[in-house]
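We close this part of the discussion by returning to an individual protein. In the encoding step, the backbone of a single protein was reduced to a row of integers, each denoting a local shape. The sequence in question and its structure tokens are set out directly beneath this paragraph.
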Amino acid sequence: MSELPTNRRARLLEHLPRAQRERLSHIDFKLYFLGELRRADVVDRFETGPAGATRDIALYRDIAPENLEFDGATKTYRPSETFVPLFEHAPQRVLTALSQGFGEGIGDQLQPMIRCEIPAALTLPKMSVLAPITRAINRSKAVRLGYTSVETGHTERVIVPLALVDIGLRWHVRAYCRLRQEFRDFVFTRMDNPEVIEDSQVQREESPDQDVQWSRIIELDLVPHPSHKRPEIIAMDYPMVDGVMKVKVRAANAGYMLRRWSVDCSPNHRLEGLEYALWLRDPLALYGASNAQLAPGYEAPKGRDKSRPIKAM
């Protein structure tokens, strides 16, 4: 069969049922990233049965006949030399699938699809703590819990969770604290006995649009560190345009992210070491961010208060 024009392919895919598009995307993924596809791959992943898997592969071949070749000896499909993926595969999802599996198995049975090594998680929330928080976010409810903080030790709190945040080293939840009457970050591992308050009502001042730090988006201009011996390599490592990578982050997360990325945020790029591959070209972009002090080398503008406490640390 001759190759279909790209726009016709897109129209065909768009009008297919979602479940079928997911199966075709999986076929595309297997060919693209693993270099082989068997009928059993579709059967095992979606439990469609051999006949259903055969139909899905036949449909994929109808849409993109030039994408795969059949090896009769091993009964395996392989990508052709002219293979072009039918779907856009998001890098983060691809890496997650390759390193942790693509939905196969349950619980601790998940296995990487190829040999991978990822950093060990030193701290993860208990599911009995996470579940009430996520239910409250989804249903716009308040949560009663015990919380141990650096500032006050253990206290009883009522919070209105807004969003989950992964800062690389840990997970926390952004929430309105009724005790402090402000939005703060609450670390999951410091919570105990969270309970959704079923009859709770979220007040106007507790709603997400009232969290200024969460709503404010900061644009950061990151450039190769001036003291780096090979700035051209840094430009290769990061998606830079004309030597600058523009990153947008929430003010509530800016300090966490810059620390995670080891960005030198000092005004005179004074931090030394190969870990500081990037420099924040305009440190004033962080002015007003509640956790700017976490950014490596950050200095508050002269005459400004440098002692503002960092919440949830």
Observations:
- Residues 127-211 form a domain with the SH3 type barrels. fold (CATH 2.30.30).
- The mean pLDDT is 91.
- Residues 128 and 193 are 8 Å apart (CA to CA).
- The radius of gyration is 25 Å.
